[in-house]
Structure formats: C-alpha cells, structure tokens
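Summarise what follows for lecture notes:
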Amino acid sequence: DWFLKDRSGKTWRLSNHYTMLNPCNSQVREHVSAVVEDIAKRYRVDGIHLDYIRFVFPSADRRDQVPYDNRTLSLFRKETTGFPGRYPVAWDEFRRQAINSVVSRISSRVRKARPGCLVSAAVIRDLKRGKEVFLQDSPTWIANGWIDEVIPMNYEKDHARFEELAKLDSGLAGGSRTIAGLGAHLYRNGADLRRQVEIARKLKSPGYSLFAYTSFFPTPSH
C-alpha cells in the first residue's frame, strides 16, 4: 500500500526495474529519509545524490489520477473538503509539498548525521516546467538550503537549445548552484560533447556532470 496507485487501483511502476513509492504517504517519507540517514551514518560519503525525486505520470491525461488511493484522497479531503478534479491547483500543490517534504527530511537528517556532506539532485531541465508538470520544486529546495546543487538533465543534441536551457536553469536556481548535466549517451564521438563542455564553461557553470557512466566504460569494473 506504499506504491503509487491510479484511479483504477492499479499499482503504477515506471518500468520493470523502477518502483515508485507514494510521497504523499507519511510512512514513505519517514522510511526513505531514514534509509538515507543510515547511509550517511554508516559510510564516509562525500555526498548524497537524489534521482527521480519527482512524480512520473503514466500519461498526460492521467496526470491528475496519481496517486489515487483512499488514504491519499482522505488526506487531501481534509485540506480541501473535496476531490482532485474539483481542486486541480490545490491537488498539484498538495503533491508538490509531499515531494518537498521528502527532500527537506533527507537534507535535515543527512546534515545532522554527517556535517559537510553535500546533498544534490538530478532535476528536469527547465526548472519551471519541472515544478509545474512533474511537481518538482527544485528552486525552493535551493532557496531553503535543503540541497547544495541541482543538476538539470539537459540532454540535448542541439547546442543552441542546450545553451538556452542552461542559461534559463542557471537563472532560476542560481549559477553557483547549477551543475550542467550533459547527455554523453547521445553522442558517438567526443566532438559534440566537448562543444557542450565549452558552452558550460562559457556560462561559468561551476562544473558539469556526464550521463552516463556506461557511455565511457562498458562495465562497472573498468
């Protein structure tokens, strides 16, 4: 009953190897933050990196139907006296705040367990779209000091478009907090990737992150 469920009661998963938990469930928020705290306590990690810290919807027309389990709907009714279809703006904000709560809890517990440990997150490129469509309010995470760096997944072959989005996200999150995320998996040679590294440096990005490891090394042992 911790999984995301749609209106039909079907448990929704991103794929066969990605399971999505319901962040609107307080037990989920507690469990996830406790697991990350345990990692920070047990191991001398330099940082904690968050991925898929957002909603991923089955389809655009079913976006308002996840999560639709009775427990989540009951919590929402306590705030609005109604159902998501009647209060779509409040429904988005309700789910957005659930994600915010996960990030806030993780940050607080990690920083207490291991002072100096960085907290970062891979986020949807075009941070405004991430907030509105995927309910991922990463500018608020930065503003509140919950995370130290965002890495917009700016996986783009068009260099002009890459630069446009990099500028946009840097302005929304703060240039010193925005690490350019480059899609190394898109290219078969290094020339285009090098060009985007140069663009990131021109924009004074404090660094860049290359996705993915397997684009450079065939196995984790290399």
